[in-house]
Write a structure and sequence with these properties.
The structure holds two protein chains of two kinds. Chain A is an all-beta fold. Chain A has strands at 4-7, 10-13, 19-25, 32-38, 44-51, 57-58, 67-73, 76-81, 90-98, 108-111, 115-119. The chains are: A mainly beta, B mainly beta.
């Protein structure tokens, strides 16, 4: 199946610094990528939808100036956590949507391995 | 609007016994449904998907799921559990209703599967 990578897998940073997380689709092109946040023992929470060449669409309650998303190419989206604070510590997961055929019903999302962020 | 209900937060089985993870969905239109598995500190791996073809869907690692429109269910089963099946399982519906974000996924809360030796 399609492969999505994330880098870094784990990052520890000081409060107030910014952290960039990369999400890459390795063997397919993804016009749309999604960023999720997952708290311990909980399901995934969609943060934003990233569309190649246009602005990201953020979910209600997610600060766009806090979580900057850039989707500059069909294989790369980045999430930058600006001025990180301890409450931003979490597991961040991206997914990339692969379109197979012309039908929306053929779409499948493939997930990256996640990035564990710890803000001290 | 779409939503997913996973009826059990935890399921425990003995190795070699059948597995049943329950999922009910709500969707105004014919949905696309998925089961994903997540091992600790890992991303999500696609087990199987239903996209209006055969109602009985076979996935990887011996898992399968049956789409039952009359019951709005998409339960995940496996005839014989293996220790390596212990993980978190998510039932997911894709946003296909008009007005929903294209490709947006709606997740169930997850079911933690424990397999005893």
């Amino acid at each position: 199946g399609a492969v999505v990578s994330q880098h870094p897998s784990r990052v520890i940073c000081k409060s107030g610094t910014s952290v960039k997380i990369e999400c890459r689709s390795l063997d397919f092109q993804a016009t749309t990528m999604f960023w999720y946040r997952q708290f311990p023992k909980q399901s995934l929470m969609l943060m934003a939808t990233s569309n190649e060449g246009s602005k990201a669409t953020y979910e209600q309650g997610v600060e766009k100036d806090k979580f900057l998303i850039n989707h500059a190419s069909l294989t790369l989206s980045t999430l930058t956590v600006t001025s990180a604070h301890p409450e931003d510590s979490s597991f961040y997961i991206c997914s990339a949507r692969e379109l197979a055929g012309s039908s929306r019903k053929q779409e499948t999302q493939y997930f990256g391995p996640g990035t564990r962020l710890l803000v001290l | 609007a779409q939503s997913v209900t996973q009826l059990d937060s935890h399921v425990s089985v003995s190795e070699g016994t059948p597995v049943l993870l329950r999922c009910n969905y709500s969707s105004s239109y014919s949905p696309s449904l998925f089961w994903y598995v997540q091992h600790p500190n890992k991303g999500l791996q696609l087990l199987l998907k239903y996209t209006s073809a055969a109602t009985l869907v076979k996935g990887i690692n011996g898992f399968e799921a049956e789409f039952k429109k009359s019951e709005t269910s998409f339960h995940l089963t496996k005839p014989s559990a293996h220790m390596s099946d212990a993980a978190e399982y998510f039932c997911v519906v894709s946003g296909t209703d008009r007005g929903s974000t294209l490709g947006r996924l709606y997740f169930g809360r997850g079911t933690q599967l424990t397999v005893w030796p």
